[in-house]
Amino acid sequence: MITEILKGMFTTFKHLLQPPVTIQYPEVKRPVRYRFKGRHELKRYDNGLEKCIGCALCAAACPADAIFVEAAENTDDERYSPGERYARVYEINMLRCIFCGFCEDACPTEAIVLEDNYELSFYDRASAIYTKEMLLVPVPPGGQPTPQKVEPGKYDRAIPEMEDPK
Amino acid sequence: MTIGAGEDTFKELTVEELRAKVGTGMPIDDPEEHMLLSMGPQHPSTHGVLRLLVELDGENIVNLAPDIGFLHTGVEKNMESKTYTKALVMTDRLDYLSPMSNNLAYILAVEKLLGVEATPRAQAIRVILCELARISSHLVWLATHALDLAAMSVFLYCFREREYILDIFEMVAGQRMMVSYFRPGGLWRDVPEEFEPAVRQFLDFFPSRIADYEALLKDNPIWLERTKGIGVISGEDAVAWGLTGPSLRGSGVDWDYRKVMPYSGYEQYEFDVPVETDGDVYARYRCRMREMWESLRIIRQALDKLPQGPVNISDRKIVPPPRSELGHSMEAVIHHFKLWTEGFSAPEGFVYQSVESPRGEFSVYLRGDGSPRPARVHFRTPSYVNLASLPLLSKGAFIADVVAIIGSIDIVLGEIDR
């Protein structure tokens, strides 16, 4: 009986000398994996145009019905995205979202991407609804903010060439 | 109605009796001597939101009735309003300690209904991930079971190793728990390059960690005192009560769906099914510990002969086209839009698919009516059936033993209430 207890004590003692595995979370953050599904971002092209074309396929693919999209027409004087339409309203209810990534899979233009931010908290239910302004990434350097005035016929193609995701 | 063998006085409560006891009346068999105790649903050792109504004679249990339903989410009904692909995410949330097994059962059922089979590579990856999920689930079971019986260090060590497995899940699926990684016709994506080295590293260090857990518990006199001879159920009773998984194999019945009805290519791997004969808490503990070793064996074999090739079948009516085709193929765009809005239609008919989840037989009954949504989904969840035997197992035990017995049948309330 004593030997078994000593064996257990020895195991515990062995672990006493090992470095701790605890990560001191708010101060130290664990890096997430490349495929991590965190908070969504709406991406832009290098010239600043929004990738989202307002097709609402993300809303259709969402198993939790968390996404609301309302599209409007692009014109060459007021262009938000390539193609005919853009998302005038884009809202994700983060209380409904289950972070399954189906919206990212469904998006035909790689506009919505689940990025690595997992620190989502709100003080009330209304602020859990993320609007397009909150989701859209800043204009990249060298790009123009939307709406842009562009020359006619240059951006009539909605779906770009893409690579298979890794 | 009496339960168990022979003319026992130990009665199972009828719904009316249970209602009466839960309500104001509380008719107790012997009101002078017996006490009715409500254990849970916020009791830490009931592993979730399980409420137990316990009738006590001193410290001895006279009668016990599980009261479930606190976590009811209507998963089965909800799935009927979603397409086959979208309904997948709900299966993650049944047995949330082993979502891979739930995904697999559901996906295999969908594939059976459609009459397709996943590619060899997808099948092998599914097996590896399911066995990792089995280890991770058993680690949570061991951790909480030991914690309930006051062994704190085991809890910490188990969660440390589970963290490594969850990290592998995050690497392949982007999610640590609600993975939704298996899709009809294959996988979400192929595993990344760093997957194989990470799993091999796990295979290297994990045996020494199991040895650590065993050093702490296997021959520990306190552990033996708390588990040996507690919650005994005979093989016949276990079969009669529909127990499956380690709870059944702890009673000497050799029954494992991976052996008797192999799925996803389990017949290619060489492994043993651990069986213990005592039928007590300790036997079930031994069964699960030995299963972890067998899982390691399966993972090693599957990884060694992991076939190359595609992970998804090429049927565009089921699997969305690769993203690289969307830019230049109109057909691909049409298929993509069609699959993500309407989904694919499955033929009329029903299928039944069982897998061996860490807790036992996890089965899916799936009925299609020719539309893109399932007409009916029903889950046969192991925890639900295993929990039904709790009154029998706890018969005559001390109130403190109930904690050990609940731990040993390893229930997850998510799949009980579903």
Short overview:
Chain A is built from four helices and five strands. By secondary structure, chain A is an alpha+beta fold.
Q: What this model shows, in words?
A:
- The complex is a heterodimer of chains A (166) and B (418).
- By secondary structure, chain A is α+β, with helices and mostly antiparallel strands.
- Chain A has a domain at 43-139: Alpha-Beta Plaits (2-Layer Sandwich).
- In chain A, 17% of the residues lie in helices and 14% in strands.
- Chain A has four helices and five strands, in the order αβαββαββα.
- The radius of gyration of chain A is 23 Å and the shape is elongated.
- The N and C termini of chain A lie far apart (55 Å).
- The model of chain B is unreliable at 1-10 (pLDDT under 50).
- In chain B, a hairpin with a 5-residue loop joins β7 (360-368) and β8 (374-380).
- Chain B is 47% helix and 12% strand.
- Chain B has helices at 15-22, 75-79, 88-91, 99-114, 120-148, 152-173, 195-217, 221-227, 235-240, 246-249, 257-260, 281-304, 323-326, 330-341, 382-388, 390-394, 399-409, 413-417, and strands spanning 35-39, 51-57, 60-67, 182-183, 186-187, 349-357, 360-368, 374-380.
- Chain B has 418 residues and is α+β, with helices and mostly antiparallel strands.
- In chain B, the strands form three sheets. In chain B, strands 1-2-3 form a three-stranded antiparallel beta sheet.
- Classes of the chains: A alpha+beta (166), B alpha+beta (418).
- Chain A binds chain B through residues 1, 4-5, 7-8, 10-12, 14-15, 21, 32-37, 55, 57, 60-61, 63-64, 98-102, 105-106, 108, 110, 114, 159-166, and chain B through 82, 85-90, 153, 157, 160, 163, 167, 170-175, 178, 180, 188-189, 192, 212, 215-217, 219-221, 320, 322-324, 326-328, 333, 336-337, 340-341.
Tally of separate helices of chain A:
4
Helix fraction of chain B by DSSP (H/I, runs of at least 4): 40-55%
Oligomeric form: heterodimer
Q: What's the rounded overall pLDDT mean of chain B?
A: 86
Compressed to H and E, one letter per element, the order of chain B equals HEEEHHHHHEEHHHHHHHHEEEHHHH
Strand content of chain A: 5-15%
Main sheet makeup of chain B: 3 strands, antiparallel
CA gyration radius of chain A, whole angstroms: 23 Å
Strand order of the largest sheet of chain B: 1-2-3
Q: Return Rg of chain B in Å.
A: 23 Å
Give the terminus-to-terminus CA distance of chain B.
27 Å
Total of helices of chain B: 18
Q: Give the topology string of chain A: H per helix, E per strand.
A: HEHEEHEEH
Strand content of chain B: 5-15%
Structural class of the helices, strands and pairings of chain B? alpha+beta
